[in-house]
Specification:
The protein is mainly beta. The protein has one domain: SspB-like (SH3 type barrels, Roll). Helix content is 11%, strand content 34%. It has one helix and seven strands. The strands form two sheets. It has a four-stranded antiparallel beta sheet with strand order 2-1-6-7. Strands 3-4-5 form a three-stranded antiparallel beta sheet, with no helix packed on it. Strand 4 and strand 5 form a beta hairpin. The radius of gyration is 16 Å and the shape is globular. The chain starts with a helix and ends in a 27-residue tail after the last strand.
Length: 125
């Protein structure tokens, strides 16, 4: 049976477009097969605007999103395997789907100093 993930990504992207919102994906840039500009990767992740106005969609199937986008005015081909997509959401209101929880460091042992680390999401404009 095929995964529901690519179908959900396409559905949220379409929903965002229908509501004049900006669909963005959060990608695990360290995953195998991901081809994105390293300069824009932060803590192993990258946020990509996948609105029709921002990208020239080449392919969006059950395996990958492949498109062309501009970074600093320079066109770049991007490949994002579906399995590397952590979330898809609307930039304006954050509504969407997280497919897995953002990575949080494990709790320190009983002798280690306690610190609180919360996951954060950085929007790239």
């Amino acid at each position: 049976m095929s995964s529901t993930k690519p179908y959900l990504i396409r559905a949220i992207r379409e929903w965002a477009a229908d509501n004049q919102l900006t669909p963005q994906i959060l990608v695990d840039a360290t995953a195998e097969g991901v081809d994105v500009p390293e300069k824009h990767v932060n803590a192993g992740q990258i946020v990509l605007n996948i609105a029709d106005q921002a990208v020239q969609l080449i392919r969006m199937d059950n395996d990958a999103l492949v498109f062309s986008a501009r970074f600093g005015g320079v066109a770049r081909d991007i490949t994002v395997p579906i399995e590397s997509v952590v979330a898809i959401y609307a930039k304006e209101n954050g509504q969407g789907i997280f497919f897995r929880e953002p990575q949080v460091p494990p709790e320190p042992g009983p002798d280690a100093e306690k610190t609180t680390t919360k996951p954060s999401l950085k929007l790239v404009k």
